[in-house]
């Protein structure tokens, strides 16, 4: 069973995929989107679902620190409902508070990656972290 992990933002979607056993998450890519004009990257997402033979999708839910649902989390919930309706796959949501912060720290402290290069990979790494957290919890 392969699971696709998505870190959804207003301009990009970070993508990660599990191995066939559901033990590890690997980064795949960052899909450019434009939430403001209704471009959600579903064409590329469909290709990735087919390539990796995905059975389930996990989407990060960026809750507020007090556990409430804010505008960004609402947007992720809406994206998840659209994905579920479009592709007919089950969608789970996972609390992703601080995954981007964790990804940034990893890139700075362990990878010594420049700010310019971080912007190109941070969403993909955040998707890996949220998917790995999900896999570890199962």
TrEMBL record:
Residues 1-103 form the YqgF/RNase H-like domain. One of its GO terms (biological process) is rRNA 5'-end processing. Keywords: Cytoplasm, Hydrolase, Nuclease, Ribosome biogenesis. The lineage of its organism: Bacteria, Bacillati, Bacillota, Bacilli, Lactobacillales. Its main location: cytoplasm. It comes from the Bacteria. It is an enzyme of class 3 (hydrolase). SMART domains: YqgFc (SM00732). One of its GO terms (cellular component) is cytosol. It comes from Jeotgalibaca dankookensis. GO terms for molecular function: hydrolase activity, acting on ester bonds; nuclease activity. This is Putative pre-16S rRNA nuclease. The keyword Hydrolase applies. Its EC number is 3.1.-.-. It is found in: Cytoplasm. It holds the Pfam family RuvX. HAMAP family: Nuclease_YqgF. SUPFAM superfamilies: Ribonuclease H-like. Could be a nuclease involved in processing of the 5'-end of pre-16S rRNA. The gene is yrrK.
